[in-house]
Amino acid sequence: MSPIPYGLGRTKPNHYLEIARTVWENRRDLPYAWRILSRGVCDGCALGVAGFHDWTMDGIHLCTTRLDLLKLNTARALDPAVLAHVAALPRSSAALRALGRLPCPMHRRRGESGFRRVSWDEALALAAARIRESAPDRIGFYLMAQANALIAGGRRDPVSGVPDYNATVELARP
Questions:
Q1: β partners of residue 156
Q2: Could you tell me if 115 and 83 are in contact, meaning their C-beta atoms sit under 8 angstroms apart?
Q3: What pLDDT is recorded for position 52?
Q4: SS3 assignment for the chain
Q5: Is 143 or 108 the better-scoring residue by pLDDT?
């Protein structure tokens, strides 16, 4: 670490205030947050980062993007009943994220007042049906670093060769 505040003029500055803020935001479950940082991949880039080290730069990899996303990765599950009435939900994305993470697949049909819990089989069947109904030039997929990190960091099913997302999530989830 550099003795210069924030490591100004260095390749990788030190983000002391951001680190302190991240510790405070994750104070309710510090051991879990530590496991994500020390054993997980960077949510910002997901390129060759494992724990605190990467294969492109010397030293510790702890960028502000990773620190900012840690709170989302340690979020508690929300009560699905909160989603029963969409009109009562907050409108800002920050307030919605503060409710917690989705613990299960949810679905809302047109005209219904809110979401209801559905099984994974039903959720995947609904998604597959919509994909099949779509014309090839009217559909696209967006993958972000977190999805790539799961693929890169996960084990593969020995029979199908498909990434085993459950095994990947279990590496970090207590």
A1: 163
A2: yes
A3: 76
A4: CCCCHHHCCCCCCCCHHHHHHHHHHCHHHHHHHHHHHHHCCCCCCCCCEECCEECCCCCCCCCHHHHHHHHHHCCCECCHHHHHCHHHCCCCHHHHHHCCECCCCEECCCCCCCCEECCHHHHHHHHHHHHHHCCHHHCCCCCCHHHHHHHHHCEECCCCCCEEHHHHHHHHCC
A5: 108
Q: Which two three-digit tokens encode residue 147?
A: 């999805």
The two three-digit tokens of residue 173, written as one number:
């989830």
Chain position carrying tokens 């405070």: 24
pTM for this entry: 0.57
Instruction: Give the tokens for residue 11.
Output: 């390749």
The answer to whether the beta carbons of residues 138 and 130 sit under 8 Å apart is no
* One-letter amino acid for residue 27 of the chain: R
pLDDT tens for 117-149 read 999 999 999 999 988 998 888 887 766 555 444
